[in-house]
Amino acid sequence: MLCASTRHVALSARLRESEPGSSQSPSHTSATQVFEHPYKPWQSVAKEHAEGAEAAYRAFRAYENSKEWAVLTIPSLWIFSVYASALPFVSPTVGAVTTASLAAVYCVGDKLYASGYGESAEGRMKGFKIRTLAFRGIAYGAIAGVVGAAYLSCVGPFPGCLQN
């Protein structure tokens, strides 16, 4: 096995061999070779393919936006489901039902967002609003649950509230 400095020397030698004007022609692909990018949204598209390219790009954006929101939503949903029962007057059953309901509303909103965005950029707004409202419920519930759990661990039960 080569150590790091030996690998660096070997890579440098290969790069020098592949430089323009070099007498040796390497049979391998060098690190400096530039590959053609398969998808170029910055270039103009032929008119007969313009509608399809625009729809494909909107579908790609909808997918990417859904992934970005999932990174925030899934941990918030998990935290909400764990700490919802720390809220006053919320039993574990009510917390589980609320978690499942908010998750279902979020999924419906995300589905409407993706399908609406696939049709037109303006069509995404209904799903976006539903998804955002569900996310706010999840996020605010998670924050309140964590604060409630901290209160319970530091002070004790909420006044006038029966804890499980």
Question: Any overview of this molecule?
Answer:
With 164 residues, the chain is mostly helical. It has a domain at 72-154. Residues 1-6 have low confidence and may be disordered. Helix 2 packs antiparallel against helix 3 (92-119), helix 2 (50-83) runs parallel beside helix 4 and helix 3 packs antiparallel against helix 4 (125-154). The chain contains four helices and no strands.
Task: Considering the chains and any ligands shown, give keywords for the structure.
single chain; 164 residues; mainly alpha; 65% helix
Topology (SSEs and partners):
Layout: H1 4-17, H2 50-83, H3 92-119, H4 125-154
Helix pairs in contact: 2-3, 2-4, 3-4
Main sheet attributes: strand count, strand direction, barrel closure: none
The shape is: elongated
State the end-to-end CA separation. Answer: 60 Å
Q: Approximately what portion of the residues adopt beta-strand conformation?
A: under 5%
Secondary-structure-based class equals mainly alpha
| Secondary-structure element order, N to C | HHHH
- Classify the helix fraction into a percent range: 55-70%
Uncertain stretches of 5 or more adjacent residues: 1-6
Number of helices: 4
Q: Supply Rg.
A: 27 Å
Number of strands: 0
Q: Whole-number average pLDDT?
A: 80
Structure, briefly:
With about 160 residues, the chain is mainly α.
